[in-house]
Design a protein that fits this description.
A hairpin with a 2-residue loop joins strand 1 and strand 2. With 282 residues, this protein is of the alpha+beta class. The chain has three domains: 59 residues, lambda repressor-like DNA-binding domains (434 Repressor (Amino-terminal Domain)); 96 residues, no CATH class; 75 residues, Arc Repressor Mutant, subunit A (Orthogonal Bundle). The strands form two sheets. A four-stranded mixed β-sheet has the order 3-2-1-7, with helices on one face. A three-stranded antiparallel β-sheet has the order 4-6-5. The radius of gyration is 29 Å and the shape is elongated. The protein contains 13 helices and seven strands. Helix content is 44%, strand content 15%.
């Protein structure tokens, strides 16, 4: 499509007349008409304000359909840096969910046009998004309790090797109510960042078994020490994010309302890695 034809189509999409577009640029309607008929071209200095008037990028103005990764990445970064505080987090979440729709080929569905899917996907009916493909899976939520976006690209060998070794101790420890209560107290700041055995037993309500389980969970670390010549142990509380994620997800899962799903996966999630046969040199 020529530049003139593109100017005409973009103008009509916005519902602008040639006179209205000309007024935005300080030009006569006849000049706009010549552009659209291909009889003349806008000056280079006019291209940025022309793109702004037509609510498009310079690439779109020239009907360039390809965008370099660095251009898209910098454009996203620059936009996020215009936001502050909570708005920046919400902006990043929105970008994540738009990426999710593209990974699920949602925008390629004939029932939806690219001009409308962003508004559709930001609508409240789409609380939780889930996409599974042979390349990996994504999960996101706009639930006010815990909005998030996660992307799990599948490694070449699949996820099987990551789960070959069972860790029943992890779940056995979390099955103990005193341990779960202590973990919540750590995240709530009710357990100090550093404490010794006497504080744990006398004031902290942490018995030796619970302390040992917290060590195994890596929710607390321990350092050997001597206090007034007496051997002791100094503990320091930590915030293992993997444990926090498990606890949060187990809490909010019941509130998830899946409003968008696209299932394109053909292979099972756990499978043996396919060995490559000998090369055929014929």
């Amino acid at each position: 499509m020529s530049l003139g034809e593109n100017i005409r189509d973009l103008r009509k999409t916005l519902g602008l007349t040639q006179e209205a577009l000309g007024e935005k640029l300080g030009m006569a309607a006849q000049t706009v008409s010549k552009w659209e008929r291909g009889e003349s071209m806008p000056d280079a200095a006019l291209l940025p304000p022309l793109a702004d008037a037509l609510d498009c990028s310079l690439d779109s103005l020239f009907d360039r359909r390809t965008t370099r990764f660095t251009d898209a990445a910098n454009a996203s970064k620059d936009w996020l840096l215009t936001l502050t505080g909570k708005d920046r987090w919400l902006g990043a979440l929105r970008l994540g969910r738009i990426l999710q729709t593209s990974l699920g080929r949602f925008w390629e569905h004939p029932a939806f046009q690219p001009d409308h899917t962003v508004d559709f996907y930001d609508d409240s009916i789409s609380v939780t998004g889930l996409i599974t493909t042979d390349e990996g899976f994504t999960l996101s939520s706009r639930n006010e309790t815990m909005p998030f976006f996660v992307l799990f690209p599948e490694p070449e060998a699949g996820w099987g090797p990551l789960l070959e070794e069972d860790v029943p101790e992890f779940w056995e420890m979390l099955a103990k109510e005193p341990v779960r209560r202590a973990v919540r107290r750590i995240y709530a700041g009710e357990i100090p960042q550093t404490f010794d055995q006497s504080w744990a037993l006398e004031k902290g309500g942490l018995d030796p078994e619970t302390l040992a389980d917290l060590e195994k969970l890596e929710a607390v670390g321990v350092l050997p020490a001597q206090i007034d010549g007496v051997k002791s142990r100094i503990y320091y509380s930590d915030y293992p994010l993997c444990l926090l994620i498990v606890l949060l997800m187990s809490t909010v899962r019941k509130d998830m309302n899946v409003g968008f799903s696209a299932y394109g996966r053909k292979a099972p999630f756990l499978r043996e890695k396919q060995s490559k046969g000998p090369k055929d040199n014929r």
